[in-house]
Amino acid sequence: MRRSTRIPAGWNMSQTKSYPMWRMRLRRGAQAFALSKQGESCLAWDARTGTPISPIIVWQDARTTDRCPQIAKTATNHVATIARLPVTPYFSASKLGWIMENIPQAAAIATAGHLRLGTTDVFLRDRLTGRFETDVATASRTSLMNLQTGQWDADLRALFGVPINCLPKIGDCSGDLGAVDDLPLVTALGRPASGPVWPWGHPSRADQIHLWHRGLCPAVCRAAMPSSGTWGAANGYLA
Q1: What is the pLDDT of residue 39?
Q2: Is residue 4 part of a domain?
Q3: Domain contains 235
Q4: CB–CB of 92/119 below 8 Å?
Q5: Taking a C-beta distance cutoff of 8 angstroms, is the pair 239, 227 a contact?
Q6: Which of 52, 67, 72, 186 has fewest C-beta within 10 Å?
Q7: Using CA atoms in the order 124, 151, 45, 71, what is the torsion angle rounded to 10 degrees?
Q8: Residue (of 140, 239, 147) closest to 199 by Cα position
Q9: Residue 71's domain is classified under what CATH number?
Q10: Domain annotation covers residue 175
């Protein structure tokens, strides 16, 4: 009898495996490159080989629909206060927790100290540049980052079941982000429809602008700025 490969209802996984990134081919004359990605989609991989041990669980995936209300019963205000996000399957935290609970290989590799968890940008940056890092704007969309400190929060990690030693370092959205064949990666941000604008010619402010656009900034971010809205397949509000 042939084994069924039907994806369970509510699951939406990338049908393309995360193949290793051996080389990046860029047209002659390029001085730098940038990385744009779908922010909430995530996966797990082995740090020793770079091989994914899970599919990419995309942002539409609803496999944690039952789990999130259980967390929300006791922790909705806590998550909203620290991460400024609601408890829903949309964000990466519950998906990463699902990987830890349901993929035995993940727990075994984590115990050995070789598991890496992250959004798709983390995987690409790890394979391309050798640096296990993410940007603060993307981290803010996981439900695992404390928006006041800009670092992973211990309470949120415990709540969703995501070990700290498996998460990437949080850094800037632009600057020295590594290189591929001596070609520097200078920017890593969300998909273009929700990307930031460099204000006043000052790229270091990108993380703040990105958070303003997301509606995630603490009360101290009150500066008025021009803005525009987009609607469609990738709805967004761009400051």
Answers
A1: 78
A2: no
A3: no
A4: yes
A5: yes
A6: 72
A7: -120
A8: 239
A9: 3.30.420.40
A10: yes
Q: Which residues pair with 170 in a beta bridge?
A: 134
Domain that includes residue 121, residue range: 34-190
Contacts within 8 Å (CB) and 24+ apart, 156-160: 156/79, 156/82, 156/83, 156/93, 159/71, 159/75, 159/78, 159/79, 159/93, 160/71, 160/93, 160/94, 160/96, 160/97
Asked whether 178 and 185 are in contact (CB, 8 A), the reply is yes
CA 92 to chain CA centroid, Å, is 7
Residue 103 near residue 95, CB atoms below 8 Å: no
Angstrom CA distances, 79 to 6, 12, 83, 224, stand at 34, 25, 5, 27
Number of domains in the chain: 1
Over pLDDT 70: what percentage of the chain? 67
Q: Is residue 114 part of a domain?
A: yes
In this structure, what token pair is assigned to residue 100?
Answer: 């830890």
Least confident of 20-34, 82-96, 160-174: 20-34
> What is the pLDDT, as a whole number, of residue 12?
53
DSSP for residue 21: -
Q: Which residues pair with 185 in a beta bridge?
A: 33
Cβ–Cβ under 8 Å, residues 180 and 24: yes
Q: How far apart are CA 126 and CA 86, in angstroms?
A: 29
Buried-exposed string 100-124: b where 16+ CB fall within 10 A, e elsewhere: beebeebeebbeeeebbbbbbbbbb
Of the chain, the end-to-end C-alpha distance in Å amounts to 55
Which of 9-18, 104-113, 173-182, 212-221 is modeled with the greatest confidence?
A: 104-113
